[in-house]
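Quick one, T. Sequence first:
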Amino acid sequence: MKHKNNVIQHKQFAFKTDSVNEDGTFSGYGSVFGNVDSYGEIVAPGAFKESIAAIKASGDPLPALWQHRWAEPIGGYDLLEEDERGLKVEGWLLTGQIPRAAEAHALMKHRVVKGLSIGYYVLEDSWNEKDRIRTLTKLDLQEISIVTFPANVEAQVESVKSILAQGNLPTLSQFEDFLRESGYSKSQATIIASKGLKELLSRSESGGKKSDALTALRNFQLSK
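Structure tokens:
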């Protein structure tokens, strides 16, 4: 299965307190269709269809992680399905076996921790140049985490640095957010990203050297 950029990405959503039960079970939406998020992205209906089928065929539950930490699974999910709103999930925490799961459950019940966040790879997407919106049409779902904030896991500056450290290129929207947090105005970030990174991404996809693009971006960071 070919992943675009080979970079796992995250999206987060809030859930309601009354969807967290005393026995450690909970429900909510791992993703909502049709809304434009802070990355300028939309998840399209059907984006999870193939991934859900593959997870069901495996016979194993999708992991519930703590704060996207791969070394800290705290439960899993029995139900994964798409409805008219988005990706509906029902999960459970191993509160009697894993101390971190019990801690997460207590924090969820008291609304201190109130987010669900999906970890996924992009398989297929489309880009609307006019509206500058990226539509995610097929995703490879890897996990759904319990997270503290129903917002970005980390500042875009650190996110882009992490992507570069792995030898990959950020998406156009990720780089624009990176520029904004680096001090550029929205219009400046749009121009720099569209004229600079877009060209680098195009060259990389058409057979150009990714190493040249990575070097250019790393040099840009050092100059800031």
